[in-house]
Amino acid sequence: MQLSGNTILITGGGSGIGRGLALALADRGNTVIICGRRQSALSETQALSDRIHAYACDLSDDKALQDLVSQIESDGHPVNMLINNAAVLNEYHFGKPEQFDRHQADIEIRTNLQAPITLSMALLPLLKKFANPSIINVGSPGGIVAISPSPLYSASKAGLHAFTQVLRLHLNNSVRVIEVFPPTVETHMTRNLRRKKVGIEGCVQAILKGLERDEDEIWIGEGKVVRWMMNLLPPRWVFKLVNSQPSMQVE
User: Fold this and answer.
1) What is the pTM assigned to this prediction?
2) Which of 8, 50, 92, 119 shows the smallest number of beta carbons within 10 Å?
3) Which keywords fit this entry according to its UniProt record (predicted)?
């Protein structure tokens, strides 16, 4: 994959992996458009490079997503690459329904699953107008093996994985479709997770290397272990093994 001379839309580009990708891709000579809910975070990222443009958008709102695509087209940005990176992660114990927050659950599912689907479909006609179009979905090993503390995150990422596979099949290489499986990265979203984390920069560089190699699936760090186990063991064994770790216990 060519990683220069593109116009790239990155969701959740104001912080975490999204910010890291925005800066790295801007440094490679791309025009980068970032979007997200927090204008302050977007502005901080935008200030770091004159190749970065920012649009505030609530990705859990379908109308806001449609308005975002309309605004990007109106502003004349020749977007040929979409990186669906934005995500929400909450912890739940389904044995304690009194603690379940339906509103937050709805935002989590809409952001992690519905938004990438809606945005991909809305942006697809624009992507196909330009050379080397691609859609890159940031998934999770938790979408392959569900994680006890974050079940809706796992469920939504499992849905994203299924969507990505079928999207790749349906587009038949007219648009390159790639899925990234990062490890647990040290970000604001993961601040309460009680497990080993890796730095943003290392994760970003691994993603870029995978893109340069034209991999359909980019597995990084602990994600490679999950893939290896799923290839060797019955899925129910892997699920039990992963969720037996002390860091996976839910109070």
Assistant:
1) 0.93
2) 50
3) Oxidoreductase
Q: What is the pLDDT of residues 87-127, one digit of tens each?
A: 999 999 999 999 899 999 999 999 999 999 999 999 999 99
Q: Name the residue among 85, 65, 81, 101 with its Cα closest to residue 31.
A: 81
Domains of the chain plus CATH, in order, are 7-248 (3.40.50.720)
Strands 52-56 and 176-181: unpaired
Q: What single-letter amino acid sits at 214?
A: D
203-216 pLDDT, tens digit per residue, is 999 999 999 999 99
Task: Identify whether 55 is a catalytic site residue.
Answer: no
CA distance 228 to 181: 13
Burial of 49 (0-12, 13-18, 19+ CB in 10 A): middle
Active-site entry in 55, 92, 153, 239: 153
User: Residue 125, by phi and psi: left (phi above 0), alpha (psi -120 to 50) or beta?
Assistant: alpha
HEC sequence for 215-240: CCEEECCHHHHHHHHHHHCCHHHHHH
